[in-house]
Amino acid sequence: MRGRETLADLLHPGGIPTASEVQVAVPQVEVEVQGALIDRLAERDVPLQGRLTLHGPLIRELAGVLTDAEEAQLLDVIGEGGRAHLDGAHPLDRRMVLIGYGLARGLLDLEARTGLTAAMPPHDVHAMTHAEWAAGGDPWYADMIDGALAECGLSLSDGARVLDFGCSSGRVVRMLAARRPQSSWLGCDVNAAAINWATGAIPEVEFTVQPLRPPLPYSDGSLDAAYAISIWSHYAEAPARVWLDELHRVIRPGGLALITTHGPGAIAYRSNDPNHGEATQRQPLVDLYRSGFSFVDAFGEAGDWGVVDREWGVSFISPEWMLREITPQWSVALYRPAAIDAHQDLWVLRREA
Ligand SMILES: C[S@@+](CC[C@H](N)C(=O)[O-])C[C@H]1O[C@@H](n2cnc3c(N)ncnc32)[C@H](O)[C@@H]1O
């Protein structure tokens, strides 16, 4: 793919078609590949059955903490209703959920044995889920980040300084800090209540309330890596650009930025999802085709949990836009379209000098 052209330029050098000429082609997405599908377990009552997830070392090590007898004991504790969710789940996913339940209920000395802590944010503090099984944090995202950074040459077990950008109340960074204590961990978010809660509950992570626009309170080149889960899926084009520049400033040359975006795969996913539907995906598709970027001010004056920013909504980014914007300051170390829950694209960018 060439860096400076849009898809439309490449396909239609003489001019792009009008919106009515664009056909919406919706591939069927049937396989969940990796990530936070477990989030939907609580919110939408989706069983884990039949889902395919990838599991790396972090999840495998954590699963190894439980014996088979203890797993059976926890299955007893969660009862019929809890067990129904786990029917047909991958054994490693089942263990992750059971460890969460066990932690939440103070069983089997799991805090000491896993290094995880059970404290959960109250319901009026932002978190992607408040479900009991999520006590201890999110092992799926932590595992994905650990694995993707390792694939790009950065081992969190060897010690690195890493920022969770837009960390909310810390579900991902708390898991990483507990399971990769060799590294030092930072988290920032615009939601002050979430950061205040995390500061009190997760002392091993250095949390900061971040401003709506740069700068971050970190010095130039002071981080080995930063990751941002479901952040570039929300920014309008201007903040999407300035925050990439700010990550470039705080990450050292050769360091990594892992971000997730809505790409063409998210449009396909949402077209098939009854919560969205095909018709709602026409505009983002046309926008991606025309300019590589699509944005809707989805939160309006109420803001997202009270944080008002009219350039924070729902956005879609094409790979062409990304390449055009990031090069030559960054190179692409890893790109996995729709790799996260068959929905968001995974990017790992390497800071060039
Ligand atoms: C979808 S959540 C993801 C949270 C976290 N990364 C996770 O995976 O648990 C988006 C986060 O971005 C934060 N955020 C960043 N910039 C924001 C802005 N301009 N307006 C509102 N929220 C913003 C929110 O407070 C929220 O914690």
Topology:
Blueprint: H1 7-11, H2 39-44, H3 57-63, H4 68-86, H5 91-104, H6 110-114, H7 139-151, E1 161-165, H8 171-179, E2 184-189, H9 192-201, E3 205-209, E4 223-228, H10 237-250, E5 251-262, H11 264-272, H12 282-291, E6 293-296, E7 314-317, H13 319-326, E8 330-340, E9 344-351
Parallel strand pairs: 1-2, 1-4, 2-3, 4-5
Antiparallel strand pairs: 5-9, 6-7, 8-9
The structure holds S-adenosylmethionine (SAM).
Describe the protein:
The protein has 353 residues and is an alpha/beta fold. It has a domain at 7-19 and 31-36 and 135-351: Rossmann fold. The chain is built from 13 helices and nine strands. It has helices at 7-11, 39-44, 57-63, 68-86, 91-104, 110-114, 139-151, 171-179, 192-201, 237-250, 264-272, 282-291, 319-326; strands at residues 161-165, 184-189, 205-209, 223-228, 251-262, 293-296, 314-317, 330-340, 344-351. Helix 3 packs across helix 5 (91-104), helix 4 packs across helix 5 and helix 7 packs across helix 8. Mean pLDDT is 87; it is low at 1-8 and 16-52. The structure holds S-adenosylmethionine. S-adenosylmethionine binds at residues 126, 128, 166-168, 171-172, 189-191, 194, 212, 229-231, 304, 307, 309, 312. Residues 126, 128, 166-168, 171-172, 189-191, 194, 212, 229-231, 304, 307, 309, 312 line the site of S-adenosylmethionine (SAM).
Features:
353 residues; alpha/beta; seven-stranded mixed beta sheet; 37% helix; Rossmann fold; two-stranded antiparallel sheet; disordered N terminus; 9 strands; binds S-adenosylmethionine; 13 helices
